[in-house]
Design brief:
Layout (H helix, E strand, L loop, with lengths): L3 E6 L7 H16 L3 E6 L1 H4 L6 H17 L8 E4 L5 H10 L4 H5 L2 H7 L8 H16 L4 E4 L4 H17 L9 E4 L33 H9 L19 H14 L3 H8 L4 H27 L2 H30 L5
Parallel strand pairs: 1-2, 2-3, 4-5
Helix pairs in contact: 3-12, 4-7, 4-13, 7-8, 9-12, 10-11, 10-12
The structure holds adenosine-5'-tetraphosphate.
Length: about 325
């Protein structure tokens, strides 16, 4: 059976190396393996946190440009903007009526993002996992690529699909399976090896953006936090050295090799030797992506054309699913 994949990113800011190595690169493999892929720019999710209305449109186009520059082929995969497909919010409402608040209260991402003042957090942030469940179920997705931080949300989507099918005694929603991405793709902050590299972290020096030029990439790697020890000969020697482990992980992912192999080459060497090598590799891999992104961003009409076509493809799948869902639930449909 052909896998049907859905995966998305939020246009909250520039994409970074973590988004590329942890998600986008893998999306391209899935597409090239022949899976039927739906890749979304989830702008409705992006507004669950404070944002600038004047920046949203460009951020949305930039994420789409990054997908294409990173290897998503809009002829093969449906590349769409979430808010262009009404079914996402329609289905979310329907599914919200069968989601228990207690389950949402247990979501660790809500706790992290809401911080200390939970009562001041918006309903959108609280119900984010229901919208994500709608994103997934709307396309009858069979597999969702998930990192550690999204596992809980996928589990909720599976539960909601099961609840719906059971309550209405139908086999309507596909219960999606996780598609576990390879180990070593979690990229950590360049300033703190215990935090993931993130779009929303305060310090821009903590991440490598896909929009950074070669000088900026080199500067960020040069200034990345490390320790005074040389690199060890094997991964065991990195156990209590999260920042060093992160740089080795990044090198391995960019070079498409293993951490062990990287340490075979660099074991015993200092960071003053390793960092320039990492920097050269990062620039070699990212520079073509950044160049292509810039080209695409200079022709916004072309990006919009691609997004219109992607929306048509997404809508063709989504609309009948919403219709069928509403019929099953007993709504008047004219
Ligand atoms: N540091 C990371 N390492 C590996 N993968 C990562 N992803 C995000 N950060 C890393 C993956 O990229 C996709 C983006 O999903 P998102 O747009 O919903 O963003 P996010 O997961 O909330 O994390 P970001 O990109 O850093 O944004 P903010 O700071 O706004 O939360 C997902 O597949 C994610 O696993």
């Amino acid at each position: 059976m052909t896998k049907r994949i859905l995966s998305c990113m939020q246009p909250t800011s520039h994409l970074h190396l973590g988004n590329y190595l942890g998600a986008l690169k893998n999306w391209v493999h899935l597409q090239d393996e022949g899976a039927e892929c739906f890749y979304g720019v989830v702008d409705l999710h992006a507004i669950t946190q404070p944002y600038e209305a004047g920046d949203l449109l460009d951020a949305t186009r930039e994420i789409a440009a990054a997908y294409i520059a990173g290897g998503v082929d809009p002829e093969k995969s449906a590349l769409f903007v979430q808010s262009a497909i009404p079914g996402h919010s329609q289905l979310m409402w329907l599914l919200a009526t069968m989601t228990q608040m207690g389950k949402l209260e247990r979501m660790t991402q809500f706790k992290d993002k809401a911080g200390k003042h939970k009562e001041r957090a918006g309903l959108g942030l609280f119900s984010y996992p229901v919208l994500m469940a709608a994103d997934i179920l709307l396309y009858k997705t069979t597999h969702v690529p998930v990192g550690e931080d999204q596992k809980q949300h996928l589990e909720l989507a599976r539960e909601i699909a099961g609840t719906f099918n059971h309550r209405y005694d139908v086999e309507h929603f596909v219960v999606p399976e996780p598609y576990i991405t390879g180990a070593g793709t979690r990229v950590m902050s360049l300033r703190d090896g215990s935090q993931k590299m993130s779009k929303s972290a305060d310090s821009d020096m903590s991440r490598i953006n896909l929009t950074d030029d070669a000088d900026m990439i080199a500067k960020k790697i040069r200034k990345a936090k490390t320790d005074p020890e040389p690199l060890p000969g094997d991964l065991k020697g990195l156990e209590a050295r999260p920042e060093a482990l992160n740089l080795v992980t990044i090198y391995a992912a960019l070079a498409e090799t293993s951490g062990e192999k990287v340490l075979e080459e660099f074991g015993g060497k200092s960071f003053s030797e390793f960092k320039p090598a990492l920097s050269d590799l990062a620039v070699a891999k990212l520079e073509p992506i950044t160049r292509r992104m810039n080209e695409l961003m200079s022709d916004k009409a072309e990006i919009d054309n691609i997004l219109v076509k992607g929306a048509e493809r997404a809508q063709a799948v989504a609309e009948p699913v919403v219709e069928d869902t509403m019929k099953i639930m007993g709504f008047w449909r004219g």
